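Predict the structure of GerKC2.
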Amino acid sequence: MKRTKGLIIILSLLILGGCYDKTELEQQAFVIAVGIDKAEDDGQYQISFQIAQGQLRGGQAEGELQKNITIQANDIIAAKSTANTLIAREINLDQTKVLIVSEELARSGELLNVLQATTRAAAFRRGVQLIITRENASEFLANNDPPLEVKPHKYYQLMMQQSSSTGLIPDADIHRFFQITEGDADLFLGIYATATRLQDKPALEDEFYAGQVPQKGEQDTQFIGSAVFKEGVMIDTLTGEETRLSMILDNTQHIEDILINFPDPKSEVHRISARLIKERTTNISIKMKEDEPAQIDVVVPFHLELLAVPSLIEYGTNQENLKMLERAVEEKFNQEAGKLIKKSQDVYGSEPFYWSLYVRRYFRTIQEYEQADWNNRIYPNANIDVKFDMEAIRFGKLIQNTDMREVRD
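Done. Here is the predicted structure for GerKC2.
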């Protein structure tokens, strides 16, 4: 009996000993976002921390909801240590949602150097999303003030979730960035954003870059499109539509249904809004022969659900109109995908679809695969055939549109 009691006491002491290094919540400053900009000194960077500090009592915010502080240092961890000399609470990176990098730094070729610290810091999660901003990251953090969100950390979390419903921004976590960059074969797409409005804008909403979406209101921050990275360096930007196509063609991006709009085939002034439902994975087939270009055949199966037909043209009961609609949708996606693929072959020399995964089975060793050189030899010279295959079309709750002749008799 005495031995049992003694064992219980010893085990209790071991369990309690696990709390020796605990830090109370009120002693910590939780960082929501980290921003990185170039500094004037070589090897130095401006590291910005956006810290949540407001408390909620009775549903009301007390004090400022967030505070920004910028430190010059050679990496994020060094900046965190320096910032702790200015802030009484211990800076905590466990809850960081996004890593914001200025476009200037992303294009400079120095991004890999400064991001290495995130792979070694245990507190920095690999699921942190990478956002590239047109302006400096510190400026973006200062100007980003969402009027409808009480909890600052929720703002970034909810914005990132929109990628699964719209497809206009990619899933771009740090883990994926290093995975693709170190693979040295495919392109990485980072989220593109800005808190500055641009004057020029295209006619179609899906072709917007961040800053071109027409709006009225206090909030200027926009997340749309993507930043293209090759070998860890930003080389270009993609529009919202190009980003969405990239996600559809990439089986590693988990996307099931996205909202789209396209020209009404029977009306020159109207566009149709619909939901593209991708229930099955994209079928990717790569065939290789010696001394011949690779043949890549891609089939994208999808369903279409009509949400709005402003022209009120009857597609649900008129078979001729329905077939015309099906052909128009498939042709539109085939043409847009063809343009994006040609751009990736001629301009980038690589692709953002992670198709290199499907060619590796042709090589026995990693050395053979690397010598074949997917992004400089195989892909740029490949013959690529992409086909969007509409398996079914749905009409929502109503098959027939309102008969305007009965309304205006």
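The chain has two domains: 26-251, 257-402.
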